[in-house]
Design a protein that fits this description.
The complex is a heterodimer of chains A (273) and B (226).
Chain A lengths: L6 E4 L5 H6 L6 E4 L1 H4 L4 H13 L2 E4 L13 H13 L4 E5 L2 E4 L2 E7 L5 H18 L3 E4 L13 H12 L2 E5 H11 L3 H6 L6 E7 L2 E3 L4 E3 L8 H13 L4 E4 L7 H19 L2
Parallel strand pairs in A: 1-2, 1-12, 2-3, 3-4, 4-7, 7-8, 8-9, 9-12
Antiparallel strand pairs in A: 5-6, 10-11
Helix pairs in contact in A: 5-6, 9-10
Chain B lengths: L1 H8 L10 H21 L1 H5 L3 H14 L9 H12 L2 H4 L2 H17 L15 E4 L3 E8 L10 E11 L4 E7 L1 H8 L5 H12 L3 H18 L2 E4 L2
Helix pairs in contact in B: 1-2, 2-4, 5-7
The chains are: A alpha/beta (273), B alpha+beta (226).
């Protein structure tokens, strides 16, 4: 993808100032626009310095692309103004919904995996892309329940990509979480994706709830070895930029850098570069 | 999709036996709301017993919050508390606490730019900056140890551009009245407040000048043209 390459990191307020002062910051940053569109004044200068020195990718949370609700034009106007202001060309969102009848859950909720939903999402995506003047990159989301589905996740995902023309944000941890919770083969899922469809990739930590026999995509823990192995497998085949997402229990910048170094090493090893 | 959304937001009662994936989503949404509300309004929430708070948050989720920005959730919760609960009537100091914590959030999140700072002068016209708020409180909620103490407390909350923190200052009723009277020049405002308090202008002026100069320097007072 033009503009970003190599390894990136999710920018969080918890380590914003340390990252700014660091000599070893990632090649690019991903930011959550909803968290920075109305940023506290205390962070503005540091954010603007980072935005002026490294490429940014915006990874949205509130588009609710699968919702039957009409698009929230005020939200989109604010989003577009934010993306334009900071010259952000890459914008990604989730294949999910988070609101219905204007009521927000602030969670990523599963969509019925049906042809009609794939068409609905694709049509809505085209409108968003026209409005924002940018391609929307779509992430495979986690789901703990599948309401009214008639397709496998991989078929649903590929249908949406095909019908919308959107590129994919491949979240490797999400594949691992879904594969474990819903008992499918994570590697086969990844191998079914055309590498040319992938704009960039995520890797993150998750939380295992042993009693419930369930993994939740918390982004609140270190990345486990099995996910690192899946990253290595993926990077051998897909030569797309990749980054770490950490949203909860955000560690110190030093700890974050250690995990980032691990990512770098694994990617380098897998790609032989 | 409608039914699923209704189940996970609590708008539709769960059928028995309970469906575990639905409970998972209910728990995720509840946790998200709870975390944001209790982290941004910690002292207010500490006075609500756990079951009552849980019930209120669950009702708020079922009722639905409209903003796509999660940082506006505390504001929605405050509106819910005012409109849908009797907490502020039964424990009046909570009304002041609610104002105190929601105003802190508003000032922390709502500053677009540093206000213009000019040298202080009595002849200038000033307004209270958008980075500051004043209120007359009936409880000393701004001090943890005194939060239920009753009285008349004039309070200034302001964004401190040097420290990047929201600060509070307990001010005199006289200073509060002056901040409310900011129309025309500062001198004319002081004249009106002196008349109200039956205080000699020449007596009040040297006493309050350092405070006003400090506020002008901190951006609490913003110079205006009209």
């Amino acid at each position: 993808m033009k503009g970003i390459q190599g390894c990136g990191l999710g920018l969080r307020r918890e380590f914003l100032f340390d990252a700014l002062a660091s000599q070893n910051s990632p090649a690019w940053w991903e930011i959550t626009p909803e968290n920075w569109m109305h940023m506290p004044y205390a962070y503005r200068e540091a954010f603007e310095t980072i935005a002026s020195t490294k490429p940014l990718v915006a990874h949205g949370l509130s588009l609710s692309i699968g919702s039957p609700d009409p698009l929230d034009i005020t939200y989109l106007l604010n989003l577009k103004a934010f993306l334009d202001r900071y010259g952000i060309t890459h914008y990604s969102e989730h294949l999910s919904f988070s609101s219905l009848h204007g009521r927000q859950t602030y969670e990523l909720l599963p969509l019925p995996m049906t042809l009609s939903m794939a068409t609905h999402v694709a049509n809505k995506l085209k409108k968003v892309q026209d409005f924002l003047g940018r391609a929307v990159i779509l992430e495979n989301a986690t789901y703990y329940h599948v309401p009214y589905s008639e397709m496998r996740e991989i078929d649903f995902l590929l249908t949406v990509l095909e019908r919308s023309g959107a590129k994919m944000l491949l979240d490797i941890n999400n594949v691992y979480v879904n594969a474990t919770n819903h008992h499918f083969d994570a590697k086969r899922f990844i191998d079914a994706i055309d590498s040319h469809h992938v704009a960039y990739m995520h890797v993150a930590g998750h939380t295992l709830y042993e009693e419930e026999n369930l993994i939740i995509d918390t982004h609140g823990e270190s990345i486990i070895d099995d996910v690192w192995a899946l990253v290595a497998h993926t990077c051998k085949r897909i030569d797309a930029p990749i980054m770490i997402e950490r949203d909860n229990d955000v560690p110190s910048w030093e700890e974050m850098k250690e995990e980032f170094t691990t990512l770098h090493t694994i990617v380098k090893g897998a790609r032989g570069a | 999709m409608e039914r699923f959304f209704g189940l996970i937001t609590g708008a539709v009662p769960l059928p028995m036996p309970q469906n575990n994936p639905i409970d998972t989503y209910k728990a995720l949404i509840y946790h998200r709301y709870y975390e944001v509300i209790t982290q941004t309004m910690p002292r207010f929430c500490a006075h609500i017993d756990a079951d009552t708070l849980r019930e209120a948050i669950e009702k708020l989720i079922a009722q639905g919050v409209k903003s796509p920005y999660i940082w506006q959730l505390p504001e929605a919760f405050a509106r819910y508390v005012i409109d849908e609960t009797s907490w502020l009537q039964t424990r009046p100091f909570l009304a002041d606490m609610l104002w105190y914590e929601t105003t802190q959030i508003a000032l922390w999140m709502g500053i677009d730019a540093k206000p213009p700072i000019e040298e202080f002068a009595w002849e200038k016209r000033y307004t209270l900056s958008s980075s500051a708020r004043i209120a007359l409180l009936k409880h000393a909620v701004f001090e943890v140890e005194r939060e239920e103490e009753t009285g008349a407390f004039a309070l200034l909350l302001y964004y401190d551009f040097a420290e990047h923190e929201v600060q509070f200052m307990q001010i005199t009723p006289f200073a509060y009245a002056l901040l409310e009277e900011l129309e025309g020049t500062l001198e004319s405002a002081l004249e009106r407040v002196c008349a109200l308090y039956d205080v000699e202008l020449e007596e009040a002026r040297p006493v309050i000048t350092p405070l006003l100069a400090q506020w002008a320097h901190q951006g609490v007072l913003t110079p205006t043209q009209s």
